[in-house]
Amino acid sequence: MMDLGDSPSSPQSQVLSPWSSVHLDADILTPPMADPDAPPPSDGHAKRVREAFDAFHEKLGERLDNTTRESVERLRQAAADKDADKLREHMGEVKERHGWLYRELAEHPAIATLLNELALWGF
Fold first, then answer.
1. Using CB atoms within 10 A as the burial measure, which of 1, 60, 68, 111 is most buried?
2. b/e for 109-120, b at 16 or more Cβ within 10 A?
3. Angle at CA 68, nearest 5°, toward 101 and 113?
4. Average pLDDT over residues 32-44
């Protein structure tokens, strides 16, 4: 005999599991359409980029010549713009031309975190 709590329309029977085919409300899964005239959300990204690269310059600034300093600035700008393609391009150039600088950037905790986020999220 079926208990009333086990009927297909009861909330108790709608247990979410990886094997069930439950239809969720679309507004839960679909982000709202962004207003094109609204300013971008303040996620603190620009501040984090500035702080990460400022800390990097404090650590290695005296070792940077004009060429490596320009490379770091291109990386900073690409990270600030959330331009993953430019960031990959510039990191490839740094790796080819300045192996030591590439290692320092990859080992710097805040910069490595930014690089990983941009790579994962594909900004």
1. 111
2. eebeebbeebee
3. 45
4. 54
